[in-house]
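Researcher: I'm comparing several assemblies side by side, and this is the next one on my list. It has 416 residues spread over two chains. Same procedure as the others: predict the full complex and return the structure.
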Amino acid sequence: MMPKKWRGTLLYLGILGASVGVLGMRTLPAASAGTPVVSSAPSVPSGSATSPKVSTIPSGAPVRVTGQTIQTRYGPVQAAVTFEGSRITDVTVLQTPNRDGRSIQIASRAVPTLHDEVLQSQSATIDTVSGATYTSDGYAQSVQSAIDQHG
Amino acid sequence: MGIPMSVDVREPAPPGAATAVEAAFALLDAADRRFSPYRFDSELSRINRGERLIASPEMVEVLGLAEDARAASGGAFDCHDPNGRLDTNGVVKGWAAQRAADVLVAAGITSFCLNAGGDVVVRGAPEPGRRWHVAVRSPTGKDPLAVLALQDAAVATSGSYERGDHIWDRRPASAGRPLASVTVVAGDLGTADVLATTLFVLGADGIDWAVTTYGCVVLAVDDRGLLHTGGELSPLLARPDPHLPGKKSLRLLGQADGSPSRSLS
């Protein structure tokens, strides 16, 4: 499992509560951050990060805080957040549900070439997941726990 | 229950990006407060209790969309539960998330990915030369069913694994094979969400209707694990990442028409 990094992105996470108001709207003024993924992409080389224009907080030495491992229906999710001062400079996904899970047995009414394309697409990198509430919820919780630890 | 939501904005972001994202969150939160069947004081709950009130413009709009969908689907889509109470969950999340995305577009944000509880709107590109890669979760396993490469599009997924509790089984006797999961790609999330819910009710035989009527793209898995597709799916499938190890975990059982099985590996 290789860590995944992003550069030049702003990520905002929120949990919209259905019973007691907003359970926690989380805004991450991040210079670089991640999206909820079920992926194991190679790292993007660092050094090309763009700084957020909103931050005036002097940066200290980078501090990396590991979030809690959150158990989801699809397996454990864990993130690590890197801070410089109070600014988030990086979010890394340490654990995602194992992509080597049990095989999916599918067949197709589609033409074989299209079916093959569907299967091949499964190996592409992932930015986000449609229908992935459980995993993205776990990701948000793990990132938040790292922020809470850092204070 | 909480609906996780994320907005991923790629640089260069305009100066008001953070404010626009907060406005998008606030819009979704307001929609939740108005339409939630789980909140005692929501407008929806008040209507269901028979309180006399003047419906808000938002409620009128959402009920209008639900009625359009009911008529278009021959009654397969209906925002009333078996007890006759209003339940707008099949239409309101996509409608609200699309409005939230419209807020981001109006603020001049040209590249973003908004994910509200698994419903996705993407605009622009995450990086030069690459479209947004949106994985479609498989109803049966941890691997994605497919990865879509999208620009300026919306994706909604309905599945029995996710939120079957409020999708009522109204399938006519002639309905197609029940679907375990159905994903719809359309130009806006309101349409995609309603169609995903409707197709979940209609079954596999509804796919051609949705594609013909709305020009959408459909990717579905039925209860036997057979893949069903509709529309121009091929151009929307992501290419494999050469840096990732090849995955051969999917086994092709056979064509749905009964042709022989074969293995991909």
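Model: For your comparison table: The first strand of chain B starts at residue 2 and ends at 10.
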